Amino acid sequence: MNESESRKGTTSVWAGETERFPNGAVTSPIFNSVAFAYDDLDEWHAVATGKAEGHIYSRNTNPTVHVLEEKIRILESAEAATSFATGMGAISNTLFAMLGPGKRVVSLKDTYGGASRLFLDFLPAYGINVTLCDTTDHEAIEAEIAKGCDLVYLETPTNPTLKVVDLKRLSAAAHKAGAIVVVDNTFATPINQNPLLLGADLVLHSATKFLCGHSDAMGGVLCGKAELVKKVFSFREINGASLQADPAYMIARGMKTLELRIERQNASALKIARYLKAHDAVEEVFYPGLETHPGHEIAKTQMSGFGGVMSFALKGNYDTVKAFLPKLKLVHLAASLGSVSTLAGPPRTTSHVELTEEQRALLGIPESLIRYSVGIENVEDLINDLEQALASIIKEDLAAL
After folding, report:
1. Active-site residue 110, yes or no?
2. What is the CATH topology of the domain spanning 258-400?
């Protein structure tokens, strides 16, 4: 397969699977072997020391896992890729492999709650300096980067407020300061956005989400410049947060429909966002595909689609959220996203459950906010479901007067 010419839908299916599998299998086998045997000791040593291709031990590499890594690597136009047991494994291993005592990282106030916890608690405990900037204040971010830093960590669109940052602009500022740029591309997916082509050095994904697409397997993937990926891989193989063959197989299988799913979710999310924006019971809708979104113009320049996740704030408070969400019929109230079925929940129980109400308020996350991850259901059915739930809470409010 020609990596530079194949389109993303073709890459999602064929990457890592162009050579014939054993016995003529048309899909990747699941290699649940812990170790891989060699008759020739010299060949074994060459593979073990990285001088020849192959596998020796599944904590390090595995043939099934390699298929998944190749799909992500090619979709993101990366030199190399490695994988992890979870998305947080990808984030934490990358940060700890790249940073140490006395190093400085500049990031955003709006990163995913697990990443925020690393920045607020874990990294400072190891003597790593952390500065979190207002997410959409690009001048302030550039000023902090210019003071000197080793790593710039970005997320766009952000979880759960869907803020957008200019990857090309901030990557240029980081490189001017000699810093490495790491981007969490989970929300956008490589179908909608390719941070490496915009200047980033490393891109990571919670493969549990859109890449897998079916809420049945967990994993994380990192890709980018070969020398940087190798450094993280060396940390991960000793740290032990390895992705196993079974979930790797399931994620790679899910990825074969990635482009189809994302195209459907892009279209449905935009239609639902416009519907919610016009509804009297909704205070605000956060979705970069809306022309009224503050980051819309930036998103248009770096995204080919605006994604399947939005958030919206109801008029009211957390009690309103508690009354509204159980009335939805075509939604799983669950702490995940990116599935074929629609998922929803407040940051209080999903993305920022680790933080206090006060900390969420400081990040601009109202308690009336709902994160809504659009599935592949018929969009009219989803809108009708939202309509009946919103009508119900309006009726209850009127009855209370």
Report:
1. no
2. Aspartate Aminotransferase, domain 1 (3.90.1150)
